[in-house]
Amino acid sequence: MSFKIFLSKFLKYGTLITSLGFVITVSLQIFARFFLSDVPPWTEEASRILFIYAIAFASGLAYRGNYFVFLEAFYAGFSQKLKKTIDLVSPLVSLLLFGFCAFYTLPMLEMGLDENSPTLQIIMFIPFLSILILSLSISYFSFLAFLKKIKFWKS
Fold first, then answer.
1. Is residue 63 packed enough to be buried (19+ CB in 10 Å), middle (13-18) or exposed (0-12)?
2. One-character DSSP codes across 112-125
3. What span, in angstroms and rounded, lies between the C-alpha atoms of 118 and 106?
4. Is residue 61 within 8 Å of 8, Cβ to Cβ?
5. pTM metric for this prediction
6. Which of 54, 59, 99, 105 is the most exposed place for a label (fewest CB within 10 A)?
7. Residue 123 — φ and ψ, nearest 5°?
8. At what angle do helices 125-154 and 3-35 cross, to 10 degrees?
9. Alpha carbon of 137 to those of 22, 42, 56, 71, 77: distances in Å?
10. Across-strand partners of 116?
């Protein structure tokens, strides 16, 4: 199995599991507000972390599938040469941006080893890890897109 297929499956199942967990914890919150005397305090923090992870897992897949917002109204007025240049530069800029983000996430992960979350009492390394997952997955897929655009540019 290639790394690209493994990463895609990892992100897909991560998105599915965390989204399902998010729906369950929010449903538990709603049920507790209406039918129980008090709401479990951990559900709010758990749903927040699960939502953040769902976004982190899904972002790489969205980049791979080209599902992000595209400003076609501006793009349509450009010349073909400028369109090709933008198409080439765009994945490179994404690669650099999210590469820097991944690099600067490492010290934050180190800080997270010494901190605990307020209600779940888990080390903050776990929620902070979502930023690294998001950054590395988008960096990887933007690198692949850049290589693909270079081949297209040369032809």
1. buried
2. HTT-B-TTT--BTH
3. 22
4. yes
5. 0.90
6. 99
7. -70, 140
8. 140
9. 21, 29, 9, 23, 31
10. 123
